[in-house]
Write a structure and sequence with these properties.
- By secondary structure, the protein is an alpha/beta fold.
- It has a single domain (about 1-25, about 80-210), classed as P-loop containing nucleotide triphosphate hydrolases (Rossmann fold).
- Helix content is about 45%, strand content about 15%.
- The strands form 2 sheets. It has a 5-stranded parallel β-sheet, with helices on both faces. A two-stranded antiparallel ribbon has the order 5-6.
- Strand 5 (about 125) and strand 6 form a beta hairpin.
- Helix 1 (about 15-25) packs across helix 9, helix 2 packs across helix 3 (about 45-55) and helix 4 (about 60-75) runs parallel beside helix 5 (about 90-100).
- The longest helix has 15 residues, at about 160-175.
- It is globular and about 40 Å long.
- About 35% of the residues are buried.
- The structure holds adenosine-5'-diphosphate and zinc ion (ZN).
């Protein structure tokens, strides 16, 4: 299954992408995580991306398109993939079509802006890519990652004012993709719930209609 998962920052798309990836046994590719890893490693890509990411702005299209193009060519994606956080602009979606990549479904997790702002303040992440929420998805031991036991931290771009910029950019640049994929008959919308398990159930029911397990 070739899947795109969309949603405002903090809507829970990364969490759902991980769950679907495990169930379908396909990789989830998060462009945001690839950029954060590059920033942590101090590579050229990371140095270029840093200013954009920390301001809550989109990294230029040609950079992320290149990352995704390389990844989709790799053997890991032979049986399908989940794109988490890509495409995020019409130009990126058009680039994906030009690559000849066939998408089975585009899943959008819908959450209102006020709930997003409330949620983001509770998000905690780990350098291994795992993410938690102090109320909705707590780690077993407070402040410590379940998967690798590292200390959790607040993402630099989860500051209140940066969240506002990211939401603004989501509405301006990414939301038009809902119409783009709806026109192509690919769009599935799920209302993001307070509890992760409730969203997971709705997502699973929705994907079952397009061949999900
Ligand atoms: P969220 O959806 O919660 O904002 P992500 O991890 O998906 O988190 O993205 C974090 C940041 O990485 C974005 O705000 C943006 O700066 C950058 N980024 C991720 N994916 C893309 C993309 N497809 N195009 C441009 N910038 C991106
Ligand atoms: Zn971890």
């Amino acid at each position: 299954m070739n899947l795109i998962i969309m949603g405002a920052p903090g809507a829970g798309k990364g969490t759902q992408a991980e769950i679907i990836a495990a169930r379908e046994n396909i990789p989830a590719i998060s462009t945001g995580q690839i950029l954060r890893d590059a920033m942590a490693a101090g590579t050229e890509l990371g140095k270029t991306a840093k200013g954009y990411v920390e301001n809550g702005d989109l990294v230029p299209d040609e950079i992320v398109i290149g990352i995704v193009r390389d990844y989709l060519k790799s053997d890991a994606c032979a049986n399908g993939f989940i794109l988490d956080g890509f495409p995020r602009s019409i130009a990126q979606a058009e680039a994906l079509e030009k690559m000849g990549v066939v998408i089975d479904a585009v899943l959008s997790i819908d959450v209102s802006d006020d709930r997003i702002v409330a949620r983001m303040s509770g998000r905690r992440v780990c350098k291994c890519g795992a993410s938690y929420h102090i109320d909705y998805k707590p780690s077993k031991v407070e402040g410590i990652c379940d998967k690798c036991s590292s200390e959790l931290y607040i993402r630099a771009d989860d500051k209140a004012e940066t969240v506002i910029t990211r939401l603004h950019n989501y509405h301006a640049q990414t939301e038009p993709l809902l119409a783009f994929y709806n026109e192509r008959g690919k769009l599935i919308r799920v209302e993001g719930q307070e509890e992760v398990e409730d969203t997971t159930r709705l997502v699973r029911e929705a994907l079952a209609k397009v061949g999900g397990r």
